[in-house]
Structure prediction request, 229 residues.
Amino acid sequence: MKNSSRIAVGVAGAVAGYLATFVLLSLFDFGNRADPITSGLLGLFVYPPIGAIAGAVFANWLVTRSGEDAGNGSVAGNSLKSLGVVVLLCVAGIGIYIAYAYATATPWLNRNGANPLLVFEVRFPAGVTVPTSDKGITIELQTDLNTMPGEVTPAAFHRDGDQPVIAGEVELAFRTSHRQLAVNVEGQPNRIYPIDLTARAPHTPEFGTWRRLADGSEIRYRAKWPGKT
Prediction:
C-alpha cells in the first residue's frame, strides 16, 4: 500500500476514533451535571481527540500488520502524518466557517456602540418656501440594506442670503456605500440626494462641500461618531 494511502487510512481512523469516543461519552452521559460547560468542553476538545489519536494509531497498525508494504513508514510516523492532515483539515474548516460568518454577518457600522449620525444641511433656491418647524418635512435615509427615518433640527434652520437652509440628522446603522437621503417638503417635489460617503463613513468634524441637484437645491453633510463633535 502506498504511503499516501496509509495516511488516508490513518485519517479515516482518526475521524472514526473521534466520533466513536464522542458517541460513547454521550451514550453513557459522561460529565458533571453541576458543571455542564466544563463537561462539554472536555467532551469536545479533550477526550474525543484522544480517541482520534488512538484511532489513527490503530488504523495504521492494522495496515502494517496486514503485511502490505510493511516497511513503508513506521506506525508512529504514519500516525503523526495522519493526525497532521486531520489538524490541517480542521484549521481549513474553521477558516472557511469564520470567512462565511464574517461575510454573512450583519454589517453594523459601529458594532459595539451607538449608531453614528449623518448630519446634514439642505439649501433651497431663493424663493422656495420652507416650513420653520418640523411640520411638513420628512427625512429618510435609504440604503441597499435598510431605510431610516431622520429628524430635522428647527433651531439650526437659517438663511444663507436669500436661500432658506434646513438642518437635521439621521442614524447610519449599516456599513454600505449605497446611501441616499430623501427630503420631502410638503407641497414640493420629493428630492433625493446621493450621499457620497465610504462604507465605513469615518467621522469628519466639518461639513463637506455643497452638492447641487438639478432643481438648484444643494446638500452638504458629514458623519458624526458617538463621543466626537
Q: What stands out?
A: DSSP finds four helices and ten strands in the chain. The first helix runs from residue 3 to 27. The beta strands are 117-123, 137-143, 147-149, 151-152, 158-160, 163-171, 179-185, 191-195, 211-212, 218-224. The helical segments are 3-27, 36-45, 47-65, 75-104.
